[in-house]
Design goal:
154 residues, alpha+beta, 5 helices, 31% helix, 34% strand
Length: 154
């Protein structure tokens, strides 16, 4: 496949777990020194998460270039929990495509609201989410991390 072909989005399958784990750990590693510990997504069990059927990957050929993981919350909103794009695919609009796919899935499942949070040291997401229509709802500590919370009506 040509490097100029846009990545294809599809549901993750068990065979993607190792690539997803490597992608997320690598993408979030830059933040470990700033936070003082690995970011939460770097610690997840992606075999279990993929088995839930809630992960979308962006692939070009056999390469996993991006990943997004969402899940429903008890109040009917959808939580965008993990978003990661490989270094080689950054700057090509892939994060936006993955978020738009997650929002479409959430809407198809009846969610009227998408939530997301990011660590306060992660400048990229703090710039991206408002550009995509998310507004900050609050800041605070959760699960041992200082987070900024956003939401968007779908």
């Amino acid at each position: 496949m040509s490097e100029t072909m846009p990545p294809m989005l599809r549901p993750a399958v068990p065979e993607d777990v190792a690539a997803i784990t490597d992608l997320v750990v690598t993408a979030f590693a830059q933040y470990t020194p700033l936070i003082g510990k690995p970011p939460a997504p770097a610690l997840y069990d992606y075999a279990e998460i993929v088995a839930r059927g809630r992960v979308t990957v962006a692939v070009r050929g056999a390469a996993v270039l991006g990943v997004v993981f969402i899940y429903p919350e008890e109040d009917g909103a959808m939580m965008l929990d993990v978003l990661a794009v490989s270094e080689t695919a950054r700057g090509q609009g892939l994060a936006r495509r993955l978020i738009e796919a997650a929002e479409a899935q959430a809407g198809d499942e009846g969610a009227a609201l998408m939530r997301v949070y990011t660590n306060e040291v992660m400048a990229g997401p703090q710039a991206l989410y408002p550009k995509l229509g998310y507004h900050e709802t609050h800041r605070g500590e959760s699960d041992g991390y200082q987070r900024i919370h956003y939401e968007k009506a779908l």
